[in-house]
Design goal:
Layout: H1 4-22, E1 30-34, H2 40-48, E2 53-56, H3 59-65, E3 74-77, H4 86-89, E4 93-99, H5 102-115, E5 119-126, E6 136-137, H6 138-149, E7 154-160, H7 169-187, E8 197-199, H8 206-211, E9 216-219, H9 221-224
Parallel strand pairs: 1-2, 1-9, 2-3, 3-4, 4-5, 5-6, 5-7, 7-8
Length: about 230
Amino acid sequence: MKKISENVEAVKKNINEACAKVGRRPDEIELIAVSKTFPTEMILQAYAAGLRKFGENRALEFRDKVPLLPEDIEWHFIGHLQTNKIKYIGRRAYLIHSVDSLHLAGALSEYGQKNRIEFRVLMEVNTSGEESKYGIHLQEAQDLFMQIDRLPNIHLKGLMTIGPFTEDEEAIRRAFRALKQLQQELQAKVDNRKLKVLSMGMSHDYSIAIEEGSTMVRIGTAIFGSRGR
């Protein structure tokens, strides 16, 4: 297996190439290293390779790992969040990618008010229509975005989606284009600062996501290797 530092360089090279293909700048893309299930030793290797933004998707693992690692890491919570586990990510999550219902947004708002926490969030949208995926359905997305935007202690920063796990590149592109189109439609209604982030693209499809407008990619396997379950 390649060293993590070599994997980081390979991912950055691919980001640069995807940007060049569509006339974008690499500094438009934020790289989130998805460290779920990997030990702190491996995260420290990625940290030594220059990465400072890491994503976790399990609240208990997030709670346990964060205190063991450098203070200057910017932590992103990217997985499905149960309302009874909000307390485990609390103040340490710089950005929550996975607000997938008005119920969760309301619970975050309530917790934030009680504990004086201002949550930065992305609204997760199911753009592929797959029933196995979390996320707000496209048909409901605009209305729910506006409702979430009115909640206290919640600061919307953009949108997130997970592309379909398929070899059909056109199906992947359709899912990403749908999120980009939603962003453009919402920009006519709300402050652009609430829509700056398009979090889309993982190890198998991040180059496509960048070509379709992603501003934030979530890369695990391509950096850390295959993970156990």
